[in-house]
Design a protein that fits this description.
By secondary structure, this protein is of the alpha+beta class. The chain is about 40% helix and about 20% strand. The protein contains 17 helices and 23 strands. Strands 17-18-16-15-21 form a 5-stranded mixed sheet, sandwiched between helices. Strands 3-2-1-5 form a 4-stranded mixed sheet, with helices on both faces. Strand 1 and strand 2 form a beta hairpin. Helix 2 crosses helix 3, helix 9 packs across helix 15 and helix 10 packs antiparallel against helix 13.
């Protein structure tokens, strides 16, 4: 049977997935890679690690199928957005990539808001914050002028990898929007915003639709990966847009809760609805938009807990070929709701919605002598879910319909975590069989090359729900009481966060 291929570059690793035309997974592989945090709030990655991960995961997928890639019709690459890869005249990477969760450009963001905020919002539909490429570039310009002067090409994560495969120089409308350099209404780079940085538009890639075929697999890439030379490759999109598509979100009003490196609560709309506490993107589904309310640290917080408190257990699980996250979830499941008063705020890299405060810091509040590692594991799952509930509350400004909610992402594989989210929301949530960016990217390939009539046809043929979680009303009531305390801690912490940030800045 013919097949479709999607490769996604999340913040924590690369996932490659091959599916058939009925949505069944034929092969899959994953490769983890690290971020570098050289200073508090910094987050960078070496783009060469993405190429290594691409070669490894693609090769593993080929080995899993008897007929290899013989019947694979096309490929998409997706990735987290905002991440600018800077290249010089010889197409060499100038510096490590500043990632979307990096908070170093808070000063630049504040100055951009003060001087140009209203105009940037009118054009780009968002207010500047450290997440966006615009303030990140401003930081490079002011702190690394020699590197800034070398910029000949600017590419985003998925585009850098796809260009290695095909040799093209383009991006899609979703990643363009993620830069805050793009005028989505005019569907072109904004010369007005680029002039703020004295950034020539010539260094920016051509803008294409997410499902458009933009190139073919080159001979060199085919040799290193086993991909068929000449196989078509579409532009692709952001990981969130691909995941939302993989969850079957093709209609206005559908809500997607994402438990991945970051946590998102996304709403599909028929038109752009800019809001100062959300992000607004054109969708990979033709004619649609999506509104994003996002928390910075979700599964990444759980990964931090794994490395900080469970290194011995992680090593033991690896020797037994067992999943450390399943072990941690089992531990958390032994603890009662509320973790005996232990409350976690997942602001390990500042926070986005609804506070947009790069000075925000994570904490465990209420520690007592009865608490064990299991309590910390439970509190972390609950704290992230509270942060997602904060996001959901913002989306109530756009819709009263909370009846079509799907939960996706690596964290959603934990039944405990999904049920905690369901209980805190007080709403029914459904989980698809296969809801990952690489799966959504593969579906988008099918639309782009014409094996599906459109996105709705692809969803109808390939997306099936696996589980439905229903809220426990008594648990919801208890969680709402805890959420009030969660919010009080945030309010009390704001001046302390600022004092701490100022102290650390003065000590540099």
């Amino acid at each position: 049977m013919n097949k479709l291929f999607g490769v996604d570059f999340g913040t924590g690793g690369c996932k490659a997935t091959v599916i058939d035309l009925e949505g069944r997974v034929c092969a899959a592989a994953f490769k983890e890679y690290p971020s570098e945090h050289q200073k508090p709030g910094w987050s960078e990655q070496d783009p060469s690690l993405w190429i290594e991960a691409f070669i490894e995961t693609v090769s593993k997928c080929k080995a899993q199928m008897e007929d290899g890639f013989d019947k694979v019709l096309g490929m998409a690459v997706t990735a987290s957005t905002h991440n600018a890869v800077l290249l010089d005249n010889e197409r060499n990477v100038i510096r490590r990539c500043i990632m979307w969760n990096d908070q170093r450009s808070s000063d630049q963001s504040n100055r951009l808001k003060g001087q140009y905020g209203e105009r940037i919002y009118q054009i780009g539909m968002q207010m500047p914050s450290p997440t966006w490429t615009l303030p990140q570039l401003m930081w490079v310009k002011e702190n690394e002028p020699d590197n800034y002067a070398k910029i000949s090409r600017l590419m985003f994560t998925k585009d850098y990898v796809r260009s290695w495969v095909t040799g093209d120089f383009c991006t899609d409308v979703v990643d363009a929007q993620g830069s805050l350099l793009y005028d989505a209404r005019k569907q072109e780079w904004s010369s007005e915003i680029c002039q703020i940085l004295n950034l020539p538009i010539s260094v920016l890639p051509e803008i294409r639709q997410s499902k458009e075929i933009v190139g073919q697999v080159k001979a060199e890439a085919a040799k290193l990966t086993g991909l068929p030379e000449g196989m078509p490759v579409i532009a692709g999109c952001s990981d969130t847009a691909a995941e939302d598509f993989s969850a079957g979100a093709v209609k206005e009003g559908q809500i997607i809760v994402k438990l991945a490196t970051a946590g998102n609560v996304n709403l599909v709309t028929n038109q752009a609805n800019p809001h100062p506490k959300t992000f607004t993107y054109p969708y990979s589904v033709s004619g649609k938009w999506y509104t994003v309310a996002a928390t910075n640290s979700c599964a990444s917080a759980n990964r931090w807990l794994r490395d900080a408190l469970y290194p011995v257990e992680k090593a033991l699980c690896e020797t037994k070929d067992e999943d450390i996250y399943e072990y941690m979830s089992e531990q958390a499941g032994t603890v009662e709701l509320g973790a005996q008063g232990l409350i976690f705020h997942p602001y390990l890299l500042g926070e986005r919605c609804p506070y947009f405060n790069p000075n925000a810091r994570g904490n465990f509040f209420g520690i007592n002598m009865l608490h064990t590692k299991a309590h910390f594991a439970r509190a972390l799952l609950e704290g992230v879910a509270f942060s997602l509930y904060d996001c959901l509350e913002v989306l109530r400004d756009f819709t009263d319909n909370m009846e079509d909610i799907v939960i996706i992402g690596g964290g959603a594989k934990s039944p405990l975590w999904s049920q905690i989210v369901c209980d805190i929301f007080g709403l029914e949530v459904k989980m698809p069989e296969n809801a990952e960016s690489s799966f959504g990217g593969a579906l988008l390939v099918g639309v782009g090359i014409g094996v599906f009539a459109n996105e709705e046809d692809a969803a109808a043929k390939c997306i099936r729900m696996k589980t439905t979680y229903r809220p426990n009303e008594e648990n919801h009531r208890k969680y709402m009481n805890l959420f009030k305390i969660y919010k009080k801690i945030v309010s009390a912490s704001k001046p302390i966060w600022d004092d701490l940030a100022e102290l650390l800045e003065n000590e540099k």
